[in-house]
Design goal:
mainly alpha, 16 helices, two-stranded antiparallel sheet
Length: 397
């Protein structure tokens, strides 16, 4: 008979993590197939359609092919760093799933930590070390440049990534993701009062994952393939397994912080209406499965958004990319924090504390509309200097 403390703090968390680990593997395999098919549809191609019905077995054929490929190691590579590079991003990307609640507690929460969000941010920020190490250890100038680009990218966007969620923490007063989800049941989803923070988080999480249009560390036009140029076989696959796992982590954070987590309901005049945490808990295991399904559907919508961005937007230049992070995202996130703090303090002593959330929503709409109008306007064309002749043909020069 297993003692109660051991069962509670070791056995059940291990079982829950293994279940989550298997689900993540299935989602990653499915996303590789979905991405190739959706991109093919957007680009008027067919995509994988040979292996199995509708090409569904392509997700199985690809890892088998990568496992059977020859593992080539460059002769002048730094061997220890070369082998550690693909492992370092993979470990935190999977460990972090211990801290993400996938459904109503306690069944679908692996470990309930009151500073879970802080630990998630700390773990996910270490993934860049593997990219830098792999790029440096490959002894390839293109790989090194890709690793350095990734370092600059992560440092630049880690700041707005963290600042964008401060407004949510100010509203909810907790680092606990379960409490943040429960807060949204008795209020509006945080995407409304924190529209600016949600927009910044969406941009920053795309940049953090090196996904298009922010895939500069692996820009094939000038870096061949960037940090993973010298990798083949399963080492190459580990980098992209970590990338998809990190995409899944960020999508889970987006859903938990801004879109109500596993709930589809709220508390109206003291009554639980819809699929709230309390109502799902009353249904037992069935309620937990329903809540986890709602959470997974929301997460998959953001995973598909990653694909949509890749098939729609062209890649940024490096100067444009850094300007966006340093000149726009950071100031916007700081303004959002200041405005949120002022409205929370102003509404705390009034009879209508929810009025602050309404004002925050209007503020977010105005800011996002202003940004869109500015981007649509575009830069002014530069005036040509006087006295400069522009030839149409070489013969006219």
């Amino acid at each position: 008979m297993i003692p109660e403390p051991l069962m509670r703090y070791l056995v059940w968390p291990t079982v829950k993590f293994l279940v989550a680990f298997v689900i993540v593997q299935v989602v990653v395999a499915a996303m590789t197939y979905i991405e190739r098919r959706v991109l093919a549809f957007m680009q008027a191609r067919l995509g994988p359609n040979r292996v199995g019905p509708w090409g569904l077995f392509q997700a199985i054929a690809d890892p088998v092919k990568l496992m059977l490929k020859e593992d080539i190691v460059p002769a002048n590579a730094e061997k220890v760093g070369y082998f550690l590079g693909p492992m370092l991003p993979l470990i935190p990307a999977f460990v972090v799933f211990c801290l993400i609640p996938f459904g109503p507690p306690p069944t679908f929460v692996v470990t309930h930590v009151n500073v879970g969000l802080l630990l998630i941010l700390a773990l996910t920020s270490t993934g860049v070390y593997g990219i830098i190490l792999g790029g440096w250890a490959s002894n390839n100038k293109f790989s090194l440049m890709g690793g350095l680009r990734s370092a600059a990218q992560m440092v630049s966007y880690e700041v707005p990534f963290g600042l964008s969620i401060v407004g949510v923490l100010m509203l909810t007063g907790s680092f606990d993701l379960v409490r943040i989800v429960r807060y949204q049941e008795s209020h509006a989803w945080n995407v409304l009062p924190q529209l600016v923070g949600c927009f910044i988080f969406l941009v920053a999480m795309t940049a953090e994952n090196n996904r298009a249009p922010f895939d500069l560390p692996e820009a094939e036009s000038e870096l061949v393939a960037g940090f993973h140029t010298e990798y083949s076989g399963m080492k190459f696959a580990f980098y992209f397994l970590a990338e998809y796992a990190a995409m899944l982590v960020n999508s889970c954070l987006m859903v938990s912080l801004f879109f109500g987590g596993w709930s589809l309901g709220g508390v109206i005049m003291g009554r639980q209406v819809g699929l709230t945490t309390v109502n799902l808990q009353h249904l037992g295991l069935l309620g937990g499965v329903i809540g986890a399904t709602i959470f997974l559907v929301k997460v998959m919508l953001f995973m598909v958004a990653y694909i949509w961005f890749r098939g729609t937007f062209p890649r940024f230049r490096f100067d444009q990319f850094m300007d966006l992070g340093l000149k726009w995202m950071i100031p916007l996130s700081l303004v959002n924090i200041v405005v949120t703090g002022i409205l929370i303090l102003a509404g705390a002593g009034t009879r209508y504390p929810a009025m602050g959330e309404v004002v925050l929503t209007l503020f977010g709409i105005v800011v996002i509309a202003a940004v869109i109008l500015f981007l649509m306007k575009g830069p002014k064309p530069k005036a040509r200097p006087a006295g400069v002749a522009h030839a149409r043909r070489v013969s006219e020069v």
